Amino acid sequence: MIGIVSDPVFMDHDTGCYHPESSLRIQYIHTLFYQKNPGIKMIDPVIARVDDIALNHDMSYVRKIAGCCRTHDLVNLDMDTVCCEDSYNIALLAAGSLIRLTEMALNQEIDAGFAFVRPPGHHALKARAMGFCIFNNVAIAARNALKYQGIKRVMIVDFDVHHGNGTQDSFYNDKSVLYFSTHQYPFYPGTGGVSDTGRGKGLGYTVNCPLSAGKRDGHFIAVYRYILAPVVQAYEPELILVSAGFDAHAMDPIGGMDLSSKGFGAIAGIIRDAACHVSAPIIFALEGGYNLNALKDSVACVVDIMKGQASPEIQPVSGQELDTMIETHGRFWPLVRQ
Question: Which of 136, 108, 109 is nearest to 122 (CA)?
Fold first, then answer.
């Protein structure tokens, strides 16, 4: 059974006219779940406790966001991140819904889950909103699982076209959470070089796989098959959280990649199969994706994979970037070199 959080309440986070991270993203996705769907269990949104948010963010920052949202006007938290009167509560719902799906998966109430929530989260830093993100949903869910669900190893997989600098920053010194990212590079926010592999106890537990613009399905499939899968096998996470951004789609107006909707399905298939080998549940959380039709089609492909459909057959394409990734990360994960 697949647990899905999809609710029009997430449209109440108002970003103003013409902002790419608009409420229409939720409306388009929600049309996939209007009718009952075999194998899918709809889960009501759940609000996070402030204490949960504070697992990953400074309380002074949490209070700042709450204060900004008491005004009746749109407030610019940074040059491209906006909040409105309802944004604080909606951001709490986003984080809380991901926590709830994670709890249900770890308690075997569902086999996997997808939280279609906004605002997104992977750019949000400990004390700073950034890149459309207010609270870091996946980081909060990971910390909650480690503190309250009795697990010791979480893996976060991020396939948004932008590097999740906030998520990386949260766990850069921490081996209890392994962060894996494919992203366009160089590109916003400027982080995520292949040599950024962690620090201290977290050395080796940040696995950045940057790709230059224009890469297609086969280039991504090679990275996930030859790096992601062996890292999962070696790390043996007890939970996999996925920052699912769909802005690497060829039709996306912000990204510069050339992925297809089928390519996202193939990526999800590799993650699913790798997770099955280590018996780790997978919970997806929506991040980017700004062409509405491409977003809806890509989400549908990923949900089909979650329900057990066979992965699309896409031939991997290697190259110098992949070779560099294998050389860099193979120092910490020998299975990558085999």
Answer: 136
The H or E element that residue 271 is part of is helix 261-277
- Find tokens 């769907």 and name the residue: 37
Round to whole Å and give the CA distance between 259 and 220.
8
Q: How confident is the model at residue 124 (pLDDT cuts 50, 70, 90)?
A: very high
Cβ atoms 167, 249 nearer than 8 A: no
pTM, to two decimals? 0.98
Closest CA to 170 of 122, 207, 130: 122
Q: Across residues 131-152, what is the average pLDDT?
A: 98
pLDDT tens, residue by residue, 305-329: 999 999 999 999 999 999 999 999 9
pLDDT tier for residue 36 given thresholds of 50, 70 and 90:
confident
- Show the domain range for 176: 2-337
Number of domains in the chain: 1
Q: How far apart are CA 277 and CA 317, in angstroms?
A: 24
Q: What is the DSSP letter of 31?
A: G
CATH number where 69 lies: 3.40.800.20
Q: Which of 200, 219, 198 is nearest to 210 (CA)?
A: 219
- Catalytic residue IDs: 123
